[in-house]
Amino acid sequence: MSTVKSAQEAVDKVADQAILAAIQQTFAVGGAIIHNATGEVIVAMHNNVLMPFLGSTTYFLPHDPTAHGERQLVDWYYENVAALNLPPPNQLTVVTTLDPCAMCAGSLLTAGFNVAVSAIDTYAGINYNSQFNFPSLPPQIRQQAQNTWAYYAIGAPVNRAYQGSTKPAFGGQGIDASSYYLTASIFDASVNTVRAASNNSGLDPSQLQNPATLPANSPVRRALTILSPFALTVTSANPRDPGAELAAPLLKTAQKAEIFNSVALLDPFGNLLVCLGGVENQSPIRTAFMETTRNYAVMRWTLMNDPDPVVRAQAEQYLTHPKYGTFVFLYAPDPTTPQAVMTFGAYGSTMEGPVPQSYPSNLQYVLLPGNTTPEALATLAQNLPPFYTQSVQVAPNQVLSQDLINAVKNGV
């Protein structure tokens, strides 16, 4: 493990990761977990949204829409905390080249890390307004961010003052303008190309074929069944208006989850493709939605990179991009928690651009948790950074079917 002795060295370290990401042709963002007391760089990672398959120089996009550097760092920490006897998150800092998006901000706040940032993202960053007041965060968790996050000072000619808490590693310090411009410009150079590749990585529904017609031994059907035992066992007549047929998969999946919840993904034909619960005992950010969107994406990426061209063609013809599908939560996320910010952010990253507008939304829930109201969920969505409100247009809605709501209530 290497050691850094200043904010400048820390940002230089993560800037190297951003360069590696740029070479990989994914979002050029890098990050690292640094021990506050010693400056030890415990692990460094970069974005892997777009990723070559098994060393190939050609690859289908995307790999995992949630594979941002910061989200990966949080999961890495929980995968290794016991084996490596790592300090608790409040003694560590995630240093990142770019202001975290909503997904990553929610992940970092859920885990409780300190955070230190170089460049601002004025479109998707959690401090998109550059005022360092976290306008997208619910009041209940805004103070947590203000107590644990910092934005390093930047030297001339930028002359940005240090902003935020001094708890992160190298609190109160700054970096030179060259490092700041590197971390900002390298991301700016990658962002539009990667978003376009991600958002356009699937056939229009008019060109898709129905996976329910595939034989039992087809690679796509087998992969879906391995991922989720309920795959292709349920079909809704209208994918935007699922009925009581979805209650059993949602409830049975939730019963096996660490926290009683589940999320289903329907395709444009109304087929249930995936229904998964969370594994929060392994990492508090591995919620039902994160598991559903990540696992479906990686499965699709794997099939579309299969050495057999027949398998690749079948995957392309039968597996939809999620923007043409419908996500259905058993329970909506609690809008007072950082997990809700993470979830709506992860949905935005899954879409990675405009979603075909139709009613109802393709982001739905059956029940609300606790004393949550639809208005509170809508307020959280409407206060997200511009990428989520202007491009993706995050709009959570309760399912229309009272039969589905009643079936779930009777089964809870």
TrEMBL record:
Coiled-coil spans are none
UniProt KW Metal-binding keyword: yes
| Residue ranges of every copy of the CMP/dCMP-type deaminase domain listed in the record | 9-145
**Alphabetically ordered keywords of this record:** Metal-binding, Zinc
DNA damage found in the keyword field: no
Question: Per its UniProt record, what InterPro entries does this chain match?
Answer: APOBEC/CMP_deaminase_Zn-bd (IPR016192), CMP_dCMP_dom (IPR002125), Cytidine_deaminase-like (IPR016193)
List the signal peptide residues.
none
Q: Which CDD domains match?
A: nucleoside_deaminase
Q: Which GO terms describe its molecular function?
A: hydrolase activity; zinc ion binding
- What SUPFAM superfamilies is this protein classified in? Cytidine deaminase-like
Instruction: Note the Pfam families from the entry.
Output: dCMP_cyt_deam_1
Please give the name of this protein.
Answer: CMP/dCMP-type deaminase domain-containing protein
What organism does the UniProt record list as the source? Answer: Pseudomonas fluorescens
- Organism lineage string: Bacteria, Pseudomonadati, Pseudomonadota, Gammaproteobacteria, Pseudomonadales
